[in-house]
């Protein structure tokens, strides 16, 4: 079995996780910029983080023959400070030409505030101006439905946004149809407690079909499972879905979306080329 | 999810309908989860926390399980969601809590 992990926060995972993912069939991992668990205090903190995502982490993944790609942004949890957001957005273009950068993400909303919406709009404008793919985070729990509607309305109102180049992540049963019906891609996140379980993810695939949908673990420093995607393959097989359908959902779908960025490629088991940082031995 | 959309390979992607197998595989786990919900509701009553808005939301959501209508997961998620549409002036805390409750009215 082969699969792509299209959303994993690998900077907060161990090398054991890289080894387990590659052993399970992972051929590429993509890492959106994320909240650190606390608010970064300055634009310098973001510069270091973007270097970590574009220099250090691809080198760490390469030790396990795994191509590593990243998305850049300021996370919506940190969007309340508009001055800091402005400075971080001004910094991002410096990194957009790095060889493992796929686009702008994960942008979106957290508590559906006016400031978050303003910063989301600025990110979308940045992505359109630089012809970047977009990865959208939808809010948690009781905020998800309202936030998804606000996000979709904002995206639809921007004439430069092409829905086929936008993945709206963390959909659940009450939001997946809203996303797909407006032409966007939908990401189903597999979490032990919140978002979706493997059985619910397979339910959504059975009801909505397997077009324009990918699965991801969004593994990070919280309760999460870096092997959630291959474990969902087991659920698919248990339900009687054939290997071609499993391959479509776990590999061909994310490959199709991500290949819209010419930098994206999957591993072939050979040593991975990466941009070596001066700080790496 | 009101409409059903065809799978990319609906005819070829599935073997025989595994309905019985789904029950065989899932029943014990779902029985356990149902008991956890029941025990949680008993527990919060014993500890005088049953009137917490999240517990009330859980009891209301649980009623949807047995109303005989489909799409229970979607409807439970919708019932637990913020029904308002306007962006919030500011964040009420950095994290969601799992159930929505209106802003308390300000005293005038």
Can you describe this structure?
The complex is a heterodimer of chains A (281) and B (108). Chain A has 281 residues and is of the alpha/beta class. Chain A has one domain: Alpha-Beta Barrel (TIM Barrel). In chain A, 41% of the residues lie in helices and 15% in strands. Chain A is built from 9 helices and 8 strands. Chain A has an 8-stranded parallel β-sheet with strand order 1-2-3-4-5-6-7-8. In chain A, β6 (166-169), α6 (176-181) and β7 form a beta-alpha-beta unit. In chain A, α3 runs parallel beside α4, α4 (114-129) crosses α5 (144-157) and α7 crosses α8. Chain A is globular. Mean pLDDT of chain A is 95; it is low at 277-281. Chain B starts with 18 loop residues before the first helix and ends in a 29-residue tail after the last helix. Chain B is extended, with a radius of gyration of 19 Å. Chain B is built from 3 helices and no strands. Chain B has helices spanning 19-46, 53-63, 72-79. Chain B has a domain at 22-79. Chain B is 44% helix and 0% strand. Chain B is mainly α and 108 residues long. Chains A and B meet through α4, α5, α6, α7 and α9 of A and α1 and α3 of B.
């Amino acid at each position: 079995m082969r699969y792509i992990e299209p959303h994993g926060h690998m900077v907060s995972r161990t090398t054991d996780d890289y080894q387990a993912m590659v052993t399970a069939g992972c051929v590429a991992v993509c890492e959106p910029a994320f909240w650190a668990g606390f608010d970064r205090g300055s634009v310098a903190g973001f510069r270091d983080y973007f270097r970590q995502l574009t220099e250090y982490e691809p080198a760490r993944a390469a030790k396990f023959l795994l191509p590593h790609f990243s998305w850049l942004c300021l996370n919506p949890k940190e969007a309340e400070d508009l001055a800091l957001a402005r400075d971080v957005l001004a910094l991002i273009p410096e990194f957009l030409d790095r060889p493992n950068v796929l686009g702008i993400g994960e942008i979106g909303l957290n508590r559906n505030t006016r400031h978050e919406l303003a910063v989301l709009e600025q990110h979308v404008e940045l992505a359109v101006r630089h012809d970047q793919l977009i990865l959208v985070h939808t809010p948690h729990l009781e905020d998800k439905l309202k936030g998804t509607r606000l996000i979709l309305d904002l995206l639809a109102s921007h004439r430069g946004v092409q829905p086929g180049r936008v993945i709206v992540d963390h959909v659940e049963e009450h939001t997946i149809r809203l996303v797909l019906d407006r032409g966007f891609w939908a990401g189903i996140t597999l979490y032990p407690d919140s978002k979706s379980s493997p059985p619910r993810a397979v339910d959504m695939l059975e009801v909505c079909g397997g077009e324009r949908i990918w699965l991801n673990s969004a593994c990070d420093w919280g309760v999460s499972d870096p092997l959630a995607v291959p474990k969902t393959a087991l659920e698919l097989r248990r339900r009687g879905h054939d290997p071609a359908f499993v391959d479509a959902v776990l590999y061909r779908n994310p490959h199709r979306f991500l290949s819209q960025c010419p930098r994206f490629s999957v591993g072939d088991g050979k040593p991975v080329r990466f941009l070596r940082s001066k700080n790496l031995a | 999810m009101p409409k059903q959309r065809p799978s990319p390979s609906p005819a070829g992607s599935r073997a025989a309908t595994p309905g019985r197998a789904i029950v065989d595989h899932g029943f014990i786990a779902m029985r356990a989860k149902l008991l956890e919900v029941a025990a949680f509701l008993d527990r919060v009553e014993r500890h005088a926390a049953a009137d917490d808005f999240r517990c009330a939301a859980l009891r209301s959501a649980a009623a949807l399980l047995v109303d005989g209508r489909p799409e229970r997961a979607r409807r439970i998620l919708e019932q637990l969601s913020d029904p308002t549409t306007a962006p919030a002036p500011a964040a009420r805390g950095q994290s969601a809590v799992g159930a929505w409750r209106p802003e308390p009215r300000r005293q005038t």
